[in-house]
Amino acid sequence: MAPARSAFYTRKVKIALGQINPTVGDFAGNAAKITDFSQRARAQGASLVLFPELSVTGYPPRDLVERPSFVARNRETVDRIAAENNGIAVICGVVTPAQADTGKSVMNSAALLKDGKVAFLQSKMLLPTYDVFDEMRNFAPARSQALFPFCGRQIALTICEDAWNDKEFWDRRLYTFDPVEALLQAGGNLLLNISASPFWIGKREFRRQMLASIARQHKVPVAMVNQIGGNDSLIFDGSSLVLNANGEVIAQGKSFEEDIVCFDSDRLTGEIHEQIQGEEAEAYAALVLGTRDYVRKCGFRQVIIGLSGGIDSALTAVIAAEALGPTNVIGVGMPGPYSSQGSIDDARQLARNLGIRFELLCITDIFESYRKTLRDVFAGRKEDETEENIQSRARGALLMALSNKFGAIVLSTGNKSELAVGYCTLYGDMAGGLALISDVPKTMVYRLSHYVNSRRPVIPQASLDKPPSAELRPDQKDSDTLPPYEVLDVILQDYIEEARTGEQIALARGFDVGLVKRVIGMVQRNEYKRQQAALGLKISPKAFGYGRRLPIAARPEV
């Protein structure tokens, strides 16, 4: 006679993934989201609901975890969530006291809340220290992990990076120990992972492939809940996943939106919600989300953008208008002595198309006043980039004056290509509180702009067609200083994201080695500018900012 199946295998057990957008330090707001989503999951028949990594505190909390009051509020919030959610088990990300002798006082943990109390704790073992991650600075690693039983399953509960060390998937592993392998070898038959996995273009598919490899190798279902939202420069896409033992997706949450997605952990069936398709579409959605959250979570309502009539400021304005609503965007045209009437008209037309407020402030008199003031001290010297930069800095000063008066944050409009080679002015066009396209190469600026117009034609065609120009001297074009952007962006990607040398890039691409080395030299010389730039939104594997930490005073090999 065949053995009787356990109670778990004789009934459906629905599990929900609560894909939420927490704010770092907003304990009341985060708890309210967790409780709301828990009750919604319970109403849909779920017995267990998962929330992202450090969902109670918000991720990444960074050095806030060094404050005892922060850790105490975190624990009080966990107790309150547990008390308010009877009738459904909840797994959420929390900070817990460290037991290790590492000098770190806390651990990054997952808490199972059941029957009004903390029923189980699991802490993170693998603490990443690459790119934007610096978790070893703040957390102690767990010494061990254990399974917990739930409805007939032995649950292997892991936290984000713990699942990113599969020897069958990675050519080069960063850690010698694989928590997933250890838990599944100990008898785990369902892998749960709570994550705060930041977005970059292509990350969603990469993450799916990695989790599918784990599922196939160990022949177990895998469920991953991921945070959504923007926290500083990081954007989290959600896209929570459930895969069966064959690595096939059987449930998936939306991308770039809060969502609840449920699956049957016995029959391995679930809900697959609509996904954003295409690089341009996902990049655009990420930038809109990152802009909205940065502005609102920092306490601002309105933004100010200098509109030049060019493509960069146009794309910035479009993203801002969608993120915040047209009534919360102020466009400012600031023509100078070399601005074309066409550029002024294009800026005004863009503002009209978007329905945003538009102000025109001419800087010619300001520029002439600077010249007059500096005439004697500059006597005998030719005009050069100095006078060009004065115009840019006059514009920056006007934007910051409007920012002070209206209580609005300035969005700078420089792209990644310009920022890389220093084709930007400190305290001028770099002025602002958020550089939202600073991780968007110029060629992608055009791709995104065409994508925008394919949805609704708002960017004037002239802005798309005319040669890029800063308009700081007569008949100026970007190509006077820079190689074509189609060439420049390839060199920059190879150097910044792939860490290739000038010789390697020239040989692989068929470019002149002198040109490649000149571009790399520009990148290196302008590190001091980038480290004074406004925070940018990360959408590439290697963005400028705290994920790329280079010395300023250095002479690296070109």
Unreliable stretches covering 5 or more consecutive residues: 1-11
- What kind of oligomer do you see? single chain
Main structural class:
alpha/beta
Strand order of the largest sheet: 5-4-3-2-1-14-15
The shape is: elongated
What fraction of residues sit in β-strands?
A: 15-25%
The Rg value, from CA coordinates, equals 26 Å
Helix share of residues?
25-40%
How would you describe the overall organization of this protein?
Helix 5 (203-218) links the parallel strand 8 and strand 9 (222-226). The protein has a 7-stranded mixed sheet, covered by helices on one side. A 6-stranded mixed sheet has the order 6-7-8-9-12-13, covered by helices on one side. By secondary structure, it is α/β, with parallel strands linked by helices. It is built from 17 helices and 20 strands. The radius of gyration is 26 Å and the shape is elongated.
What's the topology here?
Layout: E1 14-19, H1 27-43, E2 46-50, H2 68-84, E3 89-97, E4 106-114, E5 117-123, H3 135-138, E6 148-150, E7 153-159, H4 179-185, E8 190-195, H5 203-218, E9 222-226, E10 228-231, E11 234-237, E12 241-243, E13 249-252, E14 259-264, E15 269-270, H6 279-297, E16 303-306, H7 311-324, E17 329-333, H8 341-354, E18 357-360, H9 364-374, H10 385-406, E19 409-412, H11 416-421, E20 434-435, H12 442-455, H13 461-465, H14 485-497, H15 502-509, H16 513-525, H17 527-530
Parallel strand pairs: 1-2, 2-3, 7-8, 8-9, 16-17, 16-19, 17-18, 19-20
Antiparallel strand pairs: 1-14, 3-4, 4-5, 6-7, 9-12, 10-11, 12-13, 14-15
Helix pairs in contact: 1-2, 6-7, 6-12, 7-8, 7-12, 9-10, 14-16, 15-16
